[in-house]
Design a protein that fits this description.
Helices cover 10% and strands 61% of the residues. It has 261 residues and is mainly beta. The protein is globular. Pfam families: DUF2490 (PF10677). Keywords: Signal. InterPro entries: DUF2490.
């Protein structure tokens, strides 16, 4: 019992610290309206065969469930080295629109390829997922330009099942993550994404998650004409609704309900 209380206290402290850090970031700019992210995912766990994968569709809106402006279509193949280590290669198509004039087509589209490593840790009821990702990104803008960019991402995701010791059938759980986005060319720190929510795993197939995400983009500091302009942050909060269907395979152990995004 003492160990369980320690785990819960540690989770609460980390969550409060990250929330306060996020609020400090977004306080640099005036408040922005809430948007929404709708995510639908089909997952194939590795199981005994070790090979798995996923497919996902995502839509985002500038306002709460209105002013649609963005979508993602993506999928990938994974390989479970063991319970705690998973490799993945995946890709997707991303399109951004002007929500005030959807008929003109995308402002830009992106084709993305990425390679990633997931490392899981289990401490009593507290579950940690470390995700390391390297991305290659090909853009096509409306003006005809086609730049290429690389990006590095790291996400720390924490899960706490509430009514069971593991995340299994009929389990409520908390999920909190923070992810940083890095540009290898510079400026290095590009984006921060913080999520907190609650989920319910109905059975071996269906998982529902509801939460809120803050995404903060950073503009680099500049020094022009002898005047220093500090780094600026632009943040936005979004309601997130995620529905996952997990295909059942023999030999599946406890599988963390993390979002592929």
């Amino acid at each position: 019992m003492n160990r369980f209380r320690f785990v819960i206290s540690l989770t609460a402290l980390l969550s409060v610290y990250t929330l306060s850090h996020t609020f400090a970031q977004t306080s640099l700019t005036s408040p922005t309206p809430w948007g929404s992210w709708l995510i639908g995912t089909v997952q194939l766990p590795g199981g005994e065969k070790k090979w798995g994968g996923f497919a996902e569709v995502q839509a985002r809106s500038n306002a709460l469930f209105s002013q649609y402006f963005y979508n993602e279509l993506k999928g990938g193949v994974s390989y479970d080295i063991d319970k705690n280590f998973t490799l993945m290669v995946a890709g997707g198509r991303y399109a951004t629109y002007d929500y005030q004039d959807l008929s003109t087509g995308p402002l830009n589209t992106e084709k993305r390829l990425w390679e990633q490593l997931i490392v899981n840790q289990y401490l009593a009821r507290l579950k940690f997922e470390h995700r390391y990702r390297v991305e290659q990104r090909w853009f096509t803008f409306r003006d005809g330009s086609q730049p290429f960019r690389n990006r590095i991402r790291y996400r720390l995701n924490m899960f706490v099942p509430l009514n069971n010791r593991t995340i299994t059938d009929k389990t409520f759980f908390l999920s909190v993550y923070d992810e940083i986005f890095l540009n290898p060319i510079g400026p290095t720190f590009e984006r921060n994404r913080f999520f907190a929510g609650v989920g319910y795993q109905l059975d071996s197939h269906w998982i529902l998650q509801l939460g809120a995400v803050n995404q903060t983009n950073y503009n680099p500091a500049t020094f022009e004409s002898g005047v220093f302009t500090p780094q600026l942050a632009s943040g936005k909060y979004n309601v997130v609704i995620g529905l996952t269907y997990r295909l059942k395979r023999p030999g599946n152990s406890e599988k963390l309900p993390s979002q592929p995004d």
